[in-house]
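Sample entry (326 residues):
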Amino acid sequence: MVLKTPLTEALCITHPIISAPMATVSGGALAAAVTASGGLGLIGGGYGDRNWIERELRAAGNVRVGVGFITWRLADRPELLDLALEHAPAAIFLSFGDPAPFATRAKAAGVPVICQVQTLAHARAAAAAGADIIVAQGTEAGGHGGARTTMTLVPAVVDAVAPLPVVAAGGIADGRGLAAALTLGAAGALMGTRFFATTEALGHDNTKARLVSAGGDDTVRTSVFDIVRELPWPAAYQVRTVRNSLSERWHGNEDALCREIEAEAASDSPVDAFRVALQAGDTEQGVVVAGQGLDLVDAIEPAGDLVTRIVADAERSLAAAQALSG
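Predicted structure, serialized as tokens:
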């Protein structure tokens, strides 16, 4: 069985799998490995560090990869889109903000535009802005997201934006999840957490080890980590992470956290302590961004091997489902 879908046709890829453009995690090596194995890898342009983006584009070499941006941050640094377009990316991925100005520029350059959405209103707006592919992200996803579940959001978005290809995201970490996405009407799956737990992903070894040891029940959506990172995320988007000592102390007590940061206690600043913990790989006082698919993450492995296994498992799952019809 070959999983040929509107997504594989639109992006000229072999397998309907996209690795999420996780900020600071999805570098050139990971994106290149996913593309080389038949999917589409995306570099996480994230918070707009030009030097980081240039470095990771070089790291991808001559492999065809895409670049993702947090759209509300890109609005402050629109020149970064030009940087990405100069490298003739396989796609530009936009999420968390108005995609219209950037989608127009990317499409004028002949680059496909992928827009990630969290609601039906977002999906319709992205389609109107000229998106070529829509990613419907459920709340199960790691990182920032909304409130709708993948199971309910995906088919609703499929119906709302037809005939545009829709990609499912949120809690998908194996071939069964890919198969389920396809039966919901999606043309493929975007995976973040599972590709974080790969040898090519950027990130501290301690953080990756925590991905393997934690489970979906250990995660929480919170604004605590954005507060200590001093990132002004829109209130509609909280970040899903693994619970730790830092989130347990401040989740639900965010106003007090803000007051403590504003007080700027020189020797005990939550912001400074967080930065030190992050560099040290301290998973209790730093952050481990991850989704509810963690129960299916049991090892750190090469991204190419992961893609191959996910596709094979999806094919088996689809064949087993078809056999149920007699």
